[in-house]
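Q: How do we represent a protein-ligand complex in a form that can be generated token by token?
A: Start from the inputs.
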Amino acid sequence: MNISHINNLDTHSFDLTIAQMLLLFGLALFADSALSQDTTQVKVMGMGVDARFDPILTVLNSGDVVVFSVLEGTHTVTAYHPDNRRPDRIPKGVSPFDSGMLQKGDTWTLQLRKKGVYDYFCLPHERMGHVGRIIVGQSRNETKNPYSNKLLPAIAQEVYNSLNDNPIHNQ
Ligand SMILES: [Cu+2]
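Then emit the structure tokens for the protein with copper (II) ion bound:
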């Protein structure tokens, strides 16, 4: 009688442990899938003609997050899109982004899911070549010359031409 009672207790406690292990395993899987979304930093730096995104080109997987960190000056992160009074240089059907003015010390986060090439500029410094590119879900070679550069300011054209001309370098 006593022995049977003890066995029951043991079995019961073993079941709980299995349940707890499965729960922990499930939580671990959940945490793992949440972590598979990467975060990439783009530095926003420089004043005047020295204004730049570093790196100029960022290659991401779908759903990755980009954190823009302003190290100095006043800048924006603005999609090339008619809503921002510029040529359309982001994938079709994606809402255009615009950070608004960012100051030194600010961070601004962008998450992109749709595959394609996203070109963006800084409103105060576009004419000084303060532009950038994010490629989502594709390699740099797959996306050579995705947009015509004719309508952009001269120095911005040079930046995008240099990205197109050197598809392997500087990735
Ligand atoms: Cu700028």
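The radius of gyration is 24 Å. The first helix runs from residue 2 to 35.
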